Amino acid sequence: MRYTRQGISIEYDDIGNGVPLLLIHGFPFDRTLWRTQIAGLSQIYRVIAPDLRGFGQSSETDGEAVTMDQYAADLKSLLDSVNITRAVVGGISMGGYIALAFYAQYADRVKGLILANTRAVPDSEEGKRSRLANAQKVGESGTGFLVDDMAAKMLGSNAKPEIEIAVRSMMMRQRPAGVMSALRGMAQRPDRTALLRFATVPILIVSGSQDVLIPSSDSETMHALIPNSRLVIIPDAGHLSNLDKADAFNHVVREFYKQVA
Ligand code: MLT
Q1: Are β-strands 8-15 and 2-5 bridged in parallel, bridged antiparallel, or unpaired?
Q2: Ligand 1 in reach of 94 Cβ (< 6 A)
Q3: Distance 75 CA to ligand 1 centre (A)
Q4: Cβ(29) to ligand 1 under 6 A?
Q5: Which of 8, 41, 141, 208 has minimal CB crowding within 10 Å?
Q6: Ligand 1 center from residue 239 Cα (angstroms)
Q7: What is the pLDDT of residues 32-46, one digit of tens each?
C-alpha cells in the first residue's frame, strides 16, 4: 500500500487485526526485513511495516540528512492516515533510533516500545566522522563497499545461508541517495538516555548474543536505565536478530504483547 503526503510517498504493508504493531526496519534495509514477523505475527496483531523514506519502494531522497525525527514524523503521519491512534512501536537498530525519536515526539501515540539491537546513545565523534565519510564515498562510488563491509556483521555464525543471501541482496538494492541521507541523519541523532530514564510505557529490549555491531552490553545499559523494561538476549543471534532467529524473536514479542495489550 502507498501513502503520500507533501510529495513524499511511503510504501507499507498493513496486515492483520488487533493491537497495532509498527515495525521500523534498520539500515540499509527495507520493510522486507520484517517478512518473518509479518508472516508470524499478523495472525494476532495488525502489523504495519513501512519502507522508510529513501528505502525500498518509498520516495527518493536528495542525499542530504534525513533525521531520525523526520523519519518518525513520516511514520506518525502514516499512522494518522490509517486511523491508528496508539501502536506498539518496534524498531531494529536504526529503526530503534527512530522508535526512540517517535516516542520523544509522540509519546501519546505509543502503547509500548520494542528496541531491538539498538542503543540510546549517539555516535562518538569518530563514529560521526566515519558516517559522514561513508556518505561521501557512497555518493562518489555507490553502496558496494558499505555492503561488503556490513554484510558479514549482520548475522550470527550459524545463520542459514539463504538468510545471508537475502540480507546481502536487500542491502544491495537500496538506492545510494537514501543510504547517504540515513548515514547523515544517524550522525546527527541525539542522546536518548534521559528519555528512557523517564519512560512510562512498557519497553522490550532485544539483543543477540552474537551482535557485533551493537553488542548486548548496549542493551544491558538501556535495560539498567529503564525501570519498566524487559531484556531478552537471544542466544546465537547476530545483529538482525529478527531474521537470524525469527521464531525466538516472534515468541519474545508475543510474550511482551501480553503485558501491553
Ligand atoms: C542498522 O542495522 O540499522 C545499523 O547498523 C545501525 C547503525 O549503523 O548504527
Answers
A1: antiparallel
A2: yes
A3: 19
A4: no
A5: 141
A6: 9
A7: 999 999 999 999 999
